[in-house]
Amino acid sequence: MAARLMASLAPIFLFGLVFLLMPRVRAGILFGRSVPVEFAKSPGGQAIVGRYQTQVLAVILAVMLICGAALLNGLYVLSVAIAIAEFPLLMWAWIAAWRRTEPFAVKVPLRRSASLAPRALWDGFSLSQLLALLPLAIAALYLQLHWLQIPVRFATHWDASGLPNAWTARSLAGVFGPLIVGALIISGVAALSLITGHIRPDQARQMRPILAVVTWMMAALVTAVALHPLSKNPDGGPGFVWWIILPGMVGLVVSISYALHMPQRDGAYPWDGTPDSGWRWGLLYYNPQDASVIVRNRFGLGWALNFGHPYAKLWLGSTLLFTAIVLFVVLASVHAQP
Hints:
Blueprint: H1 2-21, E1 29-30, E2 33-34, H2 43-72, H3 76-101, H4 124-131, H5 133-145, E3 153-158, E4 164-169, H6 172-199, H7 201-227, H8 240-260, E5 279-280, E6 284-285, E7 294-296, E8 303-305, H9 311-333
Antiparallel strand pairs: 1-2, 3-4, 5-6, 7-8
Helix pairs in contact: 1-2, 1-3, 1-8, 2-3, 4-6, 4-7, 5-6, 5-7, 6-7, 6-9, 7-8
């Protein structure tokens, strides 16, 4: 029960940790606004950051306590609702800090610096993302070789008490569906890493360690779930999931910390060359006059779409199509049986 409780609360803590760390990813940008490079270390900047961090920590603690109490009392629907409520509360803290930073914002030259480092489309981290497909392939081969040992009907979903409440039949979609979904997601992450390496090499260097952890965590989960029907108790709850999630969360925290402390290669110019007027809350970018489809994110790592560019709709549509394909495979492979 303790491991299940910790695993249920870990995503809440990790999600809050992202909000806690993201405001100070790089100098010259604070809460999505262009500020003097030294402002974050000034008394005024420290006051804004300190107040924001206090609010975020209060939200994390309150949500974890209430959600944990709900889980211990069997109020699972309430615990899910409380966990979902964490996001708007953290957004409220971010927007409040974004507004408090406005008086200190400065206008900076709208120029962009180019990385002088050689473009490395692939590196060790990006190759490890593709290697994460190997456990899935081995699991698929093992399932094929032991096809007759798979139960004709096996559990695919369990309630909070560990009792099965959904089943699927032994079929190609039911048995190999989780592996197909996992392969699609891992391939999508690898493609994202490749595209980012071509367009924003320095951002790719930061994101690839995190993406590598995500892909291997996904590979471990999907492989374990796919092989569960061959276990001694296929209708029993997959308790092994928690022992994959917890180390995975630790790996994510370590990789995020590593990425945040990674030295940049974009030169001394700290700003991103986009006007503050194009950013909404420092999160969404809309500037029809900017020829760039993607720009450097002002919230955390990675990049953001310029929703004012016509090609942004193509990017968004491709993402929605990919999501629809994954959902279709999930629905085809997992279905309840009377």
